[in-house]
TrEMBL record:
<keyword id="KW-0689">Ribosomal protein</keyword>
<dbReference type="GO" id="GO:0003735">
    <property type="term" value="F:structural constituent of ribosome"/>
</dbReference>
<feature type="compositionally biased region" description="Basic residues">
    <location>
        <begin position="14"/>
        <end position="27"/>
    </location>
</feature>
<comment type="function">
    <text>Binds directly to 16S ribosomal RNA.</text>
</comment>
<keyword id="KW-0694">RNA-binding</keyword>
<comment type="similarity">
    <text>Belongs to the bacterial ribosomal protein bS20 family.</text>
</comment>
<protein>
    <recommendedName>
        <fullName>Small ribosomal subunit protein bS20</fullName>
    </recommendedName>
</protein>
<keyword id="KW-0699">rRNA-binding</keyword>
<dbReference type="GO" id="GO:0015935">
    <property type="term" value="C:small ribosomal subunit"/>
</dbReference>
<dbReference type="Pfam" id="PF01649">
    <property type="entry name" value="Ribosomal_S20p"/>
</dbReference>
<feature type="region of interest" description="Disordered">
    <location>
        <begin position="67"/>
        <end position="86"/>
    </location>
</feature>
<dbReference type="GO" id="GO:0006412">
    <property type="term" value="P:translation"/>
</dbReference>
<keyword id="KW-0687">Ribonucleoprotein</keyword>
<dbReference type="InterPro" id="IPR002583">
    <property type="entry name" value="Ribosomal_bS20"/>
</dbReference>
<dbReference type="InterPro" id="IPR036510">
    <property type="entry name" value="Ribosomal_bS20_sf"/>
</dbReference>
<dbReference type="GO" id="GO:0070181">
    <property type="term" value="F:small ribosomal subunit rRNA binding"/>
</dbReference>
<feature type="region of interest" description="Disordered">
    <location>
        <begin position="1"/>
        <end position="27"/>
    </location>
</feature>
Length: 86
C-alpha cells in the first residue's frame, strides 16, 4: 500500500487537475464564442467577447494553468482577427 503522503499527493493532484481542466474549458468556450462573433461579422459583440476572453486568459496565467507565452500568442491572434473585421 502507498505511503500516506503519496496518497495525499495523489488526492491533491486530482483536485488540481479538475480545477485546471475547468479553467481551460472556460477559456476555450470564450474563445469559440469570440470566433463565432468574428465569423458572423458582429464587431460590437466580438469586442465584448474578446475582453472577456482576455480576462480569462490572464487569470489562467496567474493561476498557473497556462504559460504566459501561450496566452500572449492566443491574445495576439484574437486581436489580429478582430482588427481584420474593420
Amino acid at each position: 500500500m502507498a505511503k500516506k503522503s503519496a496518497q495525499k499527493s495523489e488526492k491533491k493532484n486530482q483536485v488540481r487537475r479538475a480545477m485546471n481542466r475547468a479553467a481551460k474549458s472556460k477559456v476555450r468556450t470564450a474563445i469559440k464564442k469570440f470566433e463565432d462573433a468574428v465569423r458572423s461579422g458582429d464587431k460590437k459583440n466580438a469586442e465584448v467577447l474578446m475582453a472577456e476572453s482576455f480576462k480569462l486568459l490572464d487569470s489562467s496565467v496567474n493561476k498557473g494553468v497556462m504559460h504566459r507565452n501561450t496566452v500572449d500568442r492566443k491574445k495576439s491572434r484574437m486581436a489580429h482577427a478582430f482588427n481584420k473585421l474593420a
